[in-house]
Amino acid sequence: MRKPSIQINSNKKVRRNHENSQHVIWIISIATFTCIIAIIGAVLGSVGVIKQVHNRVDQSLSNEWETKCFVFQRVSIPYPCNPCNNSNCITYFCSEEKFKVRYEIFDGTEIFSYININGNSKKQNIQIGQEYPCYYDRSTNYNSVKWEHKQWKSQTVMISIGISLIIIAFVVLTLLGIYMIVIERPRLNQLKRRNQMLTHLSAEH
After folding, report:
1. What are the residues whose beta carbons fall under 8 Å from the beta carbon of 113, sequence distance 6 or more?
2. For a FRET experiment, which of 29, 100, 130, 169 has its CA 20 to 30 Å from that of 18?
3. What is the reported pLDDT for 29?
């Protein structure tokens, strides 16, 4: 007479086991996705730190010193931008600006030299008889001078993104761990006791 009750209990046990399996899969998926985020953050942060250190080393080894260049002469030299190999194409000309300048180096010595720039340079409004900031090579060639100083790209954004991803992953994993300890473990223990009770009842009948 008690077989229907035993069958119902057995169905409940199967249903709970199925729900528990789905719950475990859901938790494992969240943990896996969070670990992937943490790995991506660690890679981005590491690459950013390496690039930042490399830029700092290059910057410390750079020998570009700022001074003031007085412009004596400005000459525009045209050259073909796209050499033509047949008669059907049109040759376009670009211009290279050449400036004769005078500047002082670190020990007060005056140097006369030339600065060459192409049409893509930002320095297009240089006038004869004026002084402008310029940068010369102090280490090897004092006559090597240019208008623009090399800009070192900061990797702060990449490092910040990497650290943010790591922090987010850490918070999610921490909350997931608290959830497992406070909620999931008691639930699993309760489910285990129910299954043992059902198994015991089934064995008696």
Report:
1. 100, 101, 103, 136, 143, 144, 145
2. 169
3. 87
Q: What CATH number is associated with residue 121?
A: 2.40.50
* Best CA proximity match to 64, nearest among 125, 152, 129: 152
Q: Could you read off the pLDDT of 157-188 as tens digits, one per residue?
A: 888 999 999 999 999 989 988 888 887 777 66
For 121-170, the pLDDT digits (tens) are: 555 678 888 898 888 887 778 888 888 776 667 788 888 999 999 999 99
Instruction: Please count the structural domains in the chain.
Output: 2
For residues 7 and 80, which has the higher predicted lDDT (pLDDT)?
A: 80
Question: Same domain for 69 and 136?
Answer: yes
Q: Are residues 130 and 163 in the same domain?
A: no
Q: How far is CA 192 from the centre of its chain?
A: 47
- 79 and 141 both lie in a single domain: yes
d(CA 158, CA 50): 11
Contact by Cβ (8 Å): 171, 41: no
- All residues at 6 or more sequence positions from 93 whose CB lies less than 8 Å from its CB, including other chains: 78, 79, 80, 81
